[in-house]
Amino acid sequence: xxxxxxxxxxxxxxxxxxxxxxxxxxxxxxxxxxxxxxxxxxxxxxxxxxxxxxxxxxxxxxxxxxxxxxxxxxxxxxxxxxxxxxxxxxxxxxxxxxxxxxxxxxxxxxxxxxxxxxxxxxxxxxxxxxxxxxxxxxxxxxxxxxxxxxxxxxxxxxxxxxxxxxxxxxxxxxxxxxxxxxxxxxxxxxxxxxxxxxxxxxxxxxxxxxxxxxxxxxxxxxxxxxxxxxxxxxxxxxxxxxxxxxxxxxxxxxxxxxxxxxxxxxxxxxxxxxxxxxxxxxxxxxxxxxxxxxxxxxxxxxxxxxxxxxxxxxxxxxxxxxxxxxxxxxxxxxxxxxxxxxxxxxxxxxxxxxxxxxxxxxxxxxxxxxxxxxxxxxxxxxxxxxxxxxxxxxxxxxxxxxxxxxxxxxxxxxxxxxxxx
Length: 421
Description:
By secondary structure, the protein is mainly α.
């Protein structure tokens, strides 16, 4: 018995595989796109706004493909799906290195986005929920943090490669690197369910013996989706989602912004590494902070903290040390996207029909990503500066403080009306 207890549960190996897969796919492909904007537009003579439209196309494809992805993952072998997903995502990213027209990005971002739905968005939460009945929150935090960890390594490396070898080589190198590492990792570590290994989920024995009625009571409390969608709290939550997504979308423009104030692409890659380090610590911190001071106070504190890097980037962008510090803090703040959104939804509307409420509110994320990314690019093209964008980001942080405050006033109205039960 003691030997069995000391044996590492296979769930942890699954989590290791998820962390490597998600970390490389996010840190090496999804968040690396911004490093290429300036080199590609300068080399091919196209506008930054025109090139950044591929981000919007990616957001549209992701929104359309998400429902189909869930059904495919439930039907076919998870490893086959993920290997195909990695080939689509990383392979399409590598193909960007062979393109000579902006239409190449518009075309290949479609299979890239379809692959990323499997690899970066769907697989991790599904597998963690299957394998972890205990330490589920910890596993989710590790998965989110893996993107920051790998990004902190890959972003500076990509910046140096673009500087020394060119953007074409770097696209191809990163795409191939992700495929070469992730495909064997998936084959060795990923299984859809514990039963495939003759096991139970980690902690399932404890949950079976603990009081099941407590869980049932917790799940039942809250507001119905039909009531929530008509409430002022829901309207305010959608505004928060839209603004926080637009704020985080600036990650794709950190490198162009750095180069616009006189830094080279190598330093821009290092700055993006700082962003990823901030994201890493933010992903691990916001859940813990919410447990201590609540989702409302955590969200407001995050927005106030976010004003600090924006002020630094407006006031002293030419100071390398201050620039790097600002980008690290900014990365820390935008890590709240993955944690505060779900936590605010639960705090406002409970768990009664959480899935239906959150899936509707989260549409704001896709809409904001579609709109903000090209708008930022066109503003930069028109004004030759990112200052207007930074002022807009500061304004959205202030709007979010008001939106969160108003959302919880709306929650009190629902409780007073007897609709929150």
